[in-house]
Design a protein that fits this description.
single chain; mainly beta; 12% helix
């Protein structure tokens, strides 16, 4: 009984500290929580804890759910949650359970709708680069083709939150470098498993893409997502290094292992028309990091909001919404996964500037915004459970299928 009282007291002390610290920096982390809410840190698994608390923000009180992840613990790792293909979506809880994660949050913004292009299938693919278990899945779409709020000044769709093979989390920028080579020419590669290709480019689609149509890749422009689809397209299928077929329009259906489908638009299409059946073609691609060259085990897109303990200049401080974000502390050895509650009482949410401030108050040195709104989902196992539970209330009433997420694994 005495031990239980001490634990309750520790929980109240944590909340009192958060409240006081928040009041000093503008966004108050309030100790008051709804009836039945957890008011102390709860162990999910070795090196992983969960907590929730209220935040008094500019537009009203919102409710935060936080996972604290100790990457310094040898039993803990984080990796990408995804449904097995780039052009597909799944619920965070289902992806976590299928991959054996003990907790997680939703990830990148994604191609959710195609109302501007009637008859074109939305791919469900994410905006930014993605790496899972050290394997490159995709590169970033052009800035003008992204979904989500406007990017802060100086950021791009190539920005990622990642964890390297050294076990440390960091923010970085991953740029696609690749080429398509024949005996007569070498073309730069403009895309890899992307729902939008740069104007005039050639993009590669592999078995990682899935079976969804590739038509969307030739719609819009580098600066206008709603621009019409290109009327000058061409597709070439390369199997085991040789051209086996070609078509005037991008196709659909699964891509076999050992096969690459090259999709060209405008100038890229004109180059691909020069290829002939049986011709030898070499396709090379990789993601190049802007930082110290450490290989990544996990990378997911979004955009940075906090760097070196300071909010990025120009962060939006007027539009409040339900948000998901990730913070980095302890020089990359600790990760904070934050998701706001979408219940009606808390739906006013936070501005992006408030998200940066909140994660800084929680100890983050760097922070990164992920998809929010109806996508915001945080899951974690309850004591003794073998599957995760959704801990926040998604604002749509149920979990929205998303393209990826950040999964937490503990053994």
């Amino acid at each position: 009984m005495a031990g239980r009282r001490r634990r309750r007291g520790a929980g109240r002390a944590v909340l009192a500290f958060l409240t006081a610290f928040g009041a000093l920096t503008g966004v108050a982390l309030a100790g008051a929580a709804p009836a039945g809410a957890v008011q102390k840190s709860v162990r999910v698994a070795p090196g992983v804890t969960y907590e929730e608390f209220d935040i008094k923000a500019a537009k009203g009180v919102t409710h935060a759910h936080v996972l604290r992840v100790d990457l310094g613990n040898p039993r803990v790792r984080v990796d990408l949650l995804y449904p097995g293909a780039v052009g597909a979506r799944g619920q965070v809880s289902a992806m976590a359970d299928s991959q054996g994660a003990v907790a997680g949050v939703n990830g990148d913004f994604f191609n959710i709708t195609e109302t501007q292009h009637p008859g074109v299938e939305a791919t469900g693919a994410s905006v930014g680069p993605a790496i899972a278990a050290g394997r490159t899945l995709k590169a970033a779409v052009p800035n003008g083709q992204r979904f989500g709020p406007a990017l802060p000044p100086g950021t791009t769709t190539e920005d990622v939150f990642g964890v390297g093979t050294d076990g440390r989390a960091r923010l970085d920028r991953l740029t696609l470098k690749g080429s398509v080579s024949t005996a007569d020419a070498q073309l730069p590669l403009g895309g890899l498993n992307q729902y939008a290709l740069p104007v005039g480019s050639v993009g590669a689609f592999t078995s990682e893409w899935g079976s969804v149509s590739r038509v969307r890749a030739t719609c819009g422009t580098d600066t206008d997502r709603a621009a019409p689809c290109s009327t000058d397209t061409y597709e070439v299928t390369v199997r085991h290094g040789r051209v086996v077929s070609a078509a005037d329009a991008p196709g659909t259906g699964p891509i076999a292992a050992g096969t690459t489908v090259l999709v060209g638009r405008e100038a890229g299409a004109q180059q691909l028309r020069k290829f002939s059946t049986g011709e030898s073609v070499e396709v090379e691609h990789g993601l190049v990091a802007a930082r110290d060259g450490v290989a990544y085990r996990l990378a997911v897109g979004g955009y940075p909001v906090l760097s070196g303990g300071q909010p990025l200049p120009g962060l939006d401080d007027t539009t409040s919404a339900v948000r998901t974000a990730v913070g980095i502390a302890g020089r990359g050895r600790r990760v904070l996964l934050l998701a706001l509650d979408g219940a009606a009482a808390y739906r006013s949410g936070l501005t992006i500037a408030e998200v940066a401030g909140t994660l800084r108050k929680l100890g983050a040195e760097d922070a990164f915004s992920l998809d929010g709104g109806g996508s915001s989902t945080l899951v974690a196992r309850k004591p003794g459970a073998r599957t995760v539970s959704v801990r926040n209330h998604p604002s749509g009433g149920t979990e929205r299928p998303v393209p990826n997420g950040i999964g937490v694994f503990s053994r």
